[in-house]
Amino acid sequence: MARATRIFQPASHWGLNSYWQGDCPPWIALVVVLIGGRLAVAELWQALPSPLSMPLFGLLFLADMTLALWQLVGAWRSLSHWIDAQARGHVLLAGRVAVVAVAVVTVTHALDQAARQTAALVPAAYAGPQPLEVRNGVAYLTGDIGYDLLARFEATPATGVSAVDLDSAGGQVFAARALAQRVLARGLNTQVTRRCYSACTLIFMAGAHRDLGPEGKLGFHGYSLKAYPLPIDVAKEEAIDRAFLRDRGVSASFSTRAFATPHRDIWRPDREVLAAAGVLRD
Fold first, then answer.
1. Is 188 exposed, middle or buried (0-12, 13-18, 19+ CB in 10 A)?
2. Which of 93, 67, 69 is nearest to 80 (CA)?
3. Domains of the chain: which residue ranges?
4. How many CB atoms within 10 Å of residue 80?
5. CA distances from 154 to 10, 151, 184 (A)
6. Which residues, 6 or more positions from 148, have their beta carbon under 8 angstroms from its beta carbon?
7. For residue 146, how many C-alpha atoms fall within 13 Å in the half-sphere facing its CB?
8. What is the model's pLDDT at position 244?
9. By the 8 A CB rule, do 133 and 140 touch?
10. Of all helices (H) and strands (E), which one includes residue 163?
């Protein structure tokens, strides 16, 4: 039995209602009105100053969503009418997929605009890095050694601080060097009551006086290329810190043993070894 098809007859005069009813030719509805129209609207949003007043933003947002609905429904109906008349189901599927894709992009863009407007009107509060905890003249530097910890150290008022208590399993060597230089510049003492491993020991060695508590442990090892996202010359970096340890009064034999320890291991010398090598300084 033959399939009945309707004859697609586009309106001779296009208007808002005729487009809504799907009387506009599909190539005009899909390419010009829908896709071209949404691109034009996106450009207009970008040209608007930010932030807008909430009443104006709400009005424009509602108008945009109303326009998008009109564009999407008209394109969908136009495709359906034309493809039905031509009996080309596979083309109808492709056209409808295109309309759905534009709808998804439209909703995503709308949500993005709403998020930008909210963020512009209500910026996230940020008071800067939190200073280190300070008690009885001692600043407590705890956690992984990184530039965030450096920022916290710099945010800590220098007045009344005479020493830094270190408690860290290590971290970034370059951040540790920066922290060590700040400790040197302020003439601070360093102490370890729990643990100070790897990069943390560079900060410890910057102390004017260096004290290890009864339960404190210092841990040393060599550097690893895999610890950094960019290639580094491990031997060169170790030589820099060997020289730093030497300038801080540490024996060459101790530095050799420290950097000879593989990165995956840790060397925890006892107090007698540390004192004899010049690591501790009363």
1. buried
2. 93
3. 16-121, 133-277
4. 16
5. 72, 5, 13
6. 129
7. 6
8. 97
9. yes
10. strand 163-167
pTM of the model: 0.57
Distance CA 274, CA 250 (A): 9
Q: For 198, left (φ over 0), alpha (ψ -120 to 50), or beta? A: left
CB 185 within 8 A of CB 164: no
CATH superfamily of 133-277: 2-enoyl-CoA Hydratase; Chain A, domain 1 (3.90.226.10)
Token output for 149: 């910890």
Cβ neighbors of 30 (< 8 A, separation 6 or more) are 75, 78, 79, 95, 98, 99
Exposure letters 113-140 (e unless 16+ CB within 10 A, then b): beeebeeeeeeeeeeebeebebeeebbb
| Cβ(26)–Cβ(75) below 8 Å | yes
Tell me what the mean pLDDT of segment 87-106 comes to: 72
Alpha-carbon span 147 to 175, nearest angstrom = 6
From the number of C-beta atoms within 10 Å of its C-beta (0-12, 13-18, 19+), residue 271 rates as middle
Q: What are phi and psi of 242, to 5 degrees?
A: -60, -45
Q: How far is CA 94 from CA 19, 80, 87, 97, 98, in A?
A: 20, 11, 14, 5, 6
In this predicted model, what pLDDT tens digit does every residue of 46-74 receive, in sequence order? 787 777 788 888 888 888 888 888 888 88
Query: What average pLDDT is seen over the chain?
Result: 84
Going by their DSSP bridges, the two strands 138-142 and 133-135 should be labelled as antiparallel
Tally the residues of the chain.
282
208: Cβ contacts below 8 Å, ≥ 6 apart: 187, 188, 189, 281
